[in-house]
Structure formats: C-alpha cells, structure tokens
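Write out the 3D structure for:
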Amino acid sequence: MLRRLSADDARFKTVDFSPGLNLLVADTTSSSAETDSRNSAGKSSVIELVHFLLGAKSSGSLATNRALRHITFSLTMDWPWQDDPLEVRRRGDSPKVVSLSRDVSGVSADTLFTDGQDVELSVEQWNRVIERDLFELDGDHPGVSGRTLLSFLIRRVSAHGFNEPTRTFSRQPAAEASSNLAYLLGLDWQLVNGYRELNARKATRDQLRKAVNDPVWGRIVGSTADLRGQITLAEAQVERLRAQVAAFQVVPEYERLKERADQVSRRIKQLAQDDVIDQHNLEELQGAVTETTDVEVSYLEPAYRELGVILNDQVRRRFDDVKAFHHSVVRNRRRFLDEEIQELTDRLAARRQERADLGEDQARLLRELAEGGALEALTALQTALGREEAALGALRHRFDAAQALEASARQITAKSVELQQAVDLDLRERRQQTDEAILLFSRYAQRLYGEGREAYLAIEAGRTSLNITPRIDADDSRGINNMVIFCFDLTLAVLAHRHERGPDFLIHDSHLYDGVDERQVARALALAAEVTEEEHMQYIVTLNTDTLSTAAQRGFNPEPHIRSPRLTDDEEGGLFGFRFKATGKAKA
C-alpha cells in the first residue's frame, strides 16, 4: 500500500494514505470566481508524481518542469517481505536515478550506496525490481511490462487512459494491451503474446511489401520470377568457371614460354617480310637475265654491200674484235646474275625451312600455353569464380526473401488461425479464471446499476488479439463508459492481488467520475470502500467537493475516508503550494 507522498519543498502539501478507501478532495474557496475550477489544485498531479516515482519515463513528466525539477519527491509505501515501509525518492533534474531508503534490489553489485543504508538504482533497475516484487515477473517476459501493468492500475488523463477500458493510452495496440490484461486476469499471457509477435511480423511484412512495390527499393529483393531467371544464368556462369578451374594446369616457367612464343611469332613475321623483298629481287634478276643476250650483227655486211660499201679486212677484224668483247661482257653479266639468283633462291629455301621449324616450335609452345597457364592466371580465375559464387549466393538469399515475403501472407493467416484456436482452447481450459473475472465484474456492475442489469466480461480469442470486452447493458453515455472502466479496473486489481500477480492498490483520477450519475458515484465509492476492506487493499481517488457532496446526498458518508490535505484552487492551496506554467496552463 501507498503511505505518503511528500517532497523536500516546504510548500508541498504532503499527502498521507491509509488502507481502504482514500479520498483526496479539492475544495473551492470563498474567493473563487465562478470561472475558477479545481483543475489547478493538483489532483491529477498526485497521479503523475506516483507514476514518476514508480519508474515512468522522465520525458514530458510533470516532475521535470522547470519550476519543479529541483525538488526531490518521495513516495513511502509498503514493500513485499519488508517489515518497514520503503521510501522512494526521485527528482526531475536527475531523472535517471531512483534513490531507495534501503536496498530491496537484490543486486547490490550494481548499486551505489550513499548516506548509510540509502541505495541508488537506475530507472531500468528500479522497473525490474517493481516487476519482480509487485507483479511476480522475473526473467524475460516479452509482451508484459510492469509499466503497462501499473498504467492499468493507475490510469492517467494525460495519456487518455480513460478513453477505453482495455487500453491505457489512445493508440495502444490491442495485442500489446491484451497480453498485459491476460497476465492480470490469470490467463496464459505467453500464448496471448503470440498475437503481438504476429502483429509485429505482419507490420514488417507490410513494410517490406511496400518497399518491393517501390521502383528503387524493389531492386533490393525483387520478384521470384525475375530472380529465378537471374539465378539460372548465374549458375551457368559459375559452372563454366568451375570447369575452367578444374581443367587448369599451372605450367612451369609460363612467362618464359610465353616470351619464347612471342619471339617465334616475331621471327616468323620477319621471315615473311624478308621473303617478300627477296622474291621481288629474284623476279627482277630473272628479268635481267632474259634481257642479257648477244647482239644480232649478221645483217650488217649485206646491208653495207647493198649500199655499195665494201668492208675491207681491217674493218672486218675491227668488227670481230668488238663482237668478241661484247660476247665477253654478256657472259660475265649472265654469270653474275645467275650467281645472284642462286643466292636469293638459297635464302628463300633456307627461310622456308626455318619457317617450317619455327612453325613446329610455335605449335608446341601454343599447345603448352593452351593446356595451362601461370599461377597468377589461376588465381585470377579463382577470384572470378569466388566473385560469381558470391553474387549467386546473394541472388539465392534475395530469392529466399522474395519467396518468404510472397508466402508470408499465407503463413501469417495460417498462424493467426492456429493461434486463435490455441487461445480458444486455453480459455476453455482456464474456465475457472475467466468465470471468476466475469462474475466479479458482473457483481460490481450490478451493485452500481441494480440486480436486473446484464453486465459481464466477454473474453474470446480473436484473429489479431485476445478480445476482452467489459459490457454493461445501458446506453452508451460517457458516464456509463466511465463506470465500465471503474468496474473493470476494480476487477483487475482484485484478481491480481488475490492471486499475487499485482500490488494492493488502485488509483483513479476525478475525471473518471465526470458525467457519471450521482447515484452511481455514491454506489461506486461505497463499493470501493467495501471491496478494499474485504480484500485488504487500497483505493485512492481524487474528487472535487461538489461531486463528493452529491454522493453524500445519496447516502454515502465520505468523512471517514477523506485524507489530508484538502486541496484548494487559490494561490497557495494547491498540491505544490505555488502556481507555475505547465504546457501553457497554470497549475499548482
């Protein structure tokens, strides 16, 4: 139970709590104008501070307001297995640290002791201690958290906690809320948590589906049809490279052989060029031999005779000498040309033989080079194979992802049906727990609206979450909805406390009673007083005096349950004893 809410600021109004029903009342003063309200008295601030001291996030917290963050707030409360109350302290300017009057963490090695027995914990450690000691949650418990469980027992207006009975804030996923509700009701919360995991999987699939449809991001995964074709081509390329690597032989002195082959190739080209030149020269020499012949002179003497010129013996001798000389010149030239032709012919024949020999040598070298290669070439080939195999592996991973994505819708649907059947079976097996919750809720609702009013909890396995619907047969007015929340929360708190799954307190803000018929207000407060006494629990509620007055007129006696201080809406009468600006509004 909670015992005291206090602060180290003398202006703060210390709030003392007792077992049973606790009414924290806000009064109007004689100086209050008709336009004044009790919204500045600090009733909701009590709930915000209790949340802050019980491990709520500091972002947006009232305690971190500029005017309050230097104040150390304290909550004194009973703690399981402890004889004396535990004092919890936290301040807005160091919100990550929670100070305890003594160590209840059981993990002293992770704590820093100060001022004798005082111990400091991180907010995360403090929340784990709350889960372990107040809710009997130890180890891993995905889908269920102490903070969410506390939010059902201490609803906040700032989080729109009074909008729906089965949600603690307006956009809370139904699957997340239902796993925590299942825990409080004593159902198989781990099984129910399957809805949350399934919804998370579906949300991921939806995001991937959108990404695949995007023209840019779609290339990251792709369609199975496209990927199947790409994989076929990649597999063929990999097999080709594997065959080349398997058949590859490393040739010793590969570079020397390659250089020798290049030399032979260059020599063969040079011989071909030389042959062209010599062949051309040979043709010219052969032509010159044909032209080198003796001059025909037998026609000269008859020609002279016809002209009447008689050649004497001296002329004839002279002519014969010239003729003999000319024959000598022709013979010498022909012999020279024949020698040149023979030399060219020999060179051409020698080159033909050299080309033949070089051709055989070149063929041998090319065979050796074709059958293998250098170690560097094998390494390069293996690198290319590794690169192609990696690309093939990536394609196969993308194909698996695409297949999983295309099949996930069917799998999620099948899993949803399977989970729904499993939860439905579990509900039948836990008939005792569900009956206890239904009867308790019905009892509380009929105390407010009469025995003839149909009221019950509808608990069933849905497709996307465990559906828990509290119903009271009445119109859908705001007042009825608020009393549904009252009966539902009281049922949760009682069941959790009875079966040691939760603490012994329940806290409601005055907003819960806005718009509620005065008769139901009186009956709700009387019921809370009766139930908390029977169950050895504590119900804390903040109320305005006018709401409390109408309840008193309907037969409820509030006096034994009113706790000090009585807050007012004047300058110093609020919870904090002074006014300050918060989120654009004046609060105290």
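Residues 117 and 488 are 40 Å apart (CA to CA).
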